[in-house]
Design a protein that fits this description.
Strand content: 15-25%
CATH class of the largest domain: Alpha Beta
Helix content: 25-40%
Bound molecules: zinc ion
Radius of gyration: 20 Å
Largest sheet: 7 strands, mixed
CATH superfamily of the largest domain: Medium-chain alcohol dehydrogenases, catalytic domain
Shape: globular
CATH architecture of the largest domain: Alpha-Beta Complex
């Protein structure tokens, strides 16, 4: 029987989330219902809410307690504490080859929220878009699959657990999994939000050197320094690339562009030494009028990587991130600002304006 829940519905075209009562479908055999205890907000929630033209419930960094399990669930029991991450099919070539973030069905399962039956509806029967990243956790309760739920230890509170599911693993995973970064190699991170700062923390763990950071906000570059950046370059500096090439004796091995504008994309490319790896998180200029020029990748840049969830195998990588956090090497919890679920519209604004680096809703 569908369950009555409270959920934050975004009407579409960037409309602010409004909390209302919805019905949540019964779990399919490989799904379970969790009682959401915390849900972090990521840039993707805002970006897709602006792009969508129908009412949907977002939220893809949720954490909570298993309330009900589908008939085929083997990994979890009612009462287990879990963090939810991105969805993947588990069957395609990339899923079987330990690259579930590059699941052939990624867009359908995550951005589109595809599910065998609609997950959410209004009491009058109107379908509301659910299963965003196979979770839609801006709600009191959510359906997650067994694959995208990760057990978390008793020693980790839900607020700290929530951002692991996307932002933190994307930043840290970019360095560790996508780049396979090694000690002593120089790294540039453009954009010091939750993803960029997590990348810097991970680069510090690995021993990349020097770690160079840039952001248009000085309070964020101050955080970059606090978490391991050796050098800050002003994003408006017209000698940006020249200074970095000089400081690294030829350019950086890895450049992570978390900002995603045409300008930051070109700047990041210009800072790489031959054979360097450029990591991008969005299509450059995707939300601008400009179009990336197809010849933009120089011949000598051997790799450009689309960073999706840091190429994480969540069952293995999230426990590793928790271990690093608990040993004090990944203090991403310091980036969190909590908001009561009822204040979700303010939390969206704080994420959009940059006033909060990682807003987390509490229930
Ligand atoms: Zn797959
Ligand atoms: Zn995200």
């Amino acid at each position: 029987m569908p369950k009555s829940i409270r959920a934050a519905v975004c009407a579409g075209h960037g409309a602010a989330p409004v909390i209302e009562t919805l019905l949540l479908d019964d779990p399919l055999p490989d799904e379970m219902i969790i009682t959401v205890k915390a849900a972090a907000i990521c840039h993707t929630d805002l970006g897709i809410s602006e792009w969508s033209d129908s009412p949907r419930v977002f939220g893809h960094e949720g954490a909570g307690i298993v309330l009900q399990t589908g008939s085929a669930i083997e990994k979890f029991q009612v009462g287990d504490r879990v963090a939810a991450t991105f969805g993947f099919c588990g069957q395609c070539r990339n899923c079987k080859d330990a690259h579930p973030a590059y699941c052939f069905d990624n867009i359908n399962l995550n951005i589109e929220g595809q599910r065998a039956r609609p997950a959410l509806s209004r009491p009058d029967g109107e379908i509301i878009g659910g299963a965003f990243f196979q979770q839609s956790t801006f709600a009191s309760h959510a359906l997650v699959t067994e694959r995208n739920a990760i057990a978390i230890p008793e020693t980790l509170d839900f607020v700290t657990a929530a951002p692991l599911g996307c932002g933190i693993q994307t930043g840290a995973g970019a360095i560790i999994n996508n780049f396979s970064a090694t000690a002593g190699r120089p790294l540039l991170v453009i954009g010091c939000g939750a993803v960029g700062l997590s990348a810097i923390m991970a680069a510090k763990i690995i021993g990349c050197a020097p770690i160079i950071a840039s952001d248009i906000h000085s309070h964020r570059t101050a955080l970059a320094t606090q978490y391991g950046a050796d050098m800050i370059v002003d994003s408006a500096d017209i000698e940006f690339a020249a200074k970095i090439i000089a400081a690294t004796n030829g350019g950086v091995s890895y450049a992570l562009d978390t900002a995603g504008s045409q300008q930051t994309f070109e700047t990041a490319m210009a800072c790489l030494h031959p054979g360097g790896n450029l990591g991008i998180l969005t299509i450059p200029g995707a939300f601008e009028d400009s179009v990336p020029h197809p010849g933009g990748l120089p011949f000598m840049t051997t790799t450009m990587t689309g960073i999706i969830e840091g190429d994480s195998v969540p069952d293995q990588f999230i426990p590793w991130l928790i271990e690093q956090h608990q040993q004090g090497r990944l203090p991403y919890d310091e980036l969190i600002t909590t908001f009561p679920f009822e204040d979700i519209a303010n939390a969206f604004d704080a994420q959009r304006s940059g006033a909060a680096i990682k807003p987390v809703l509490t229930f």
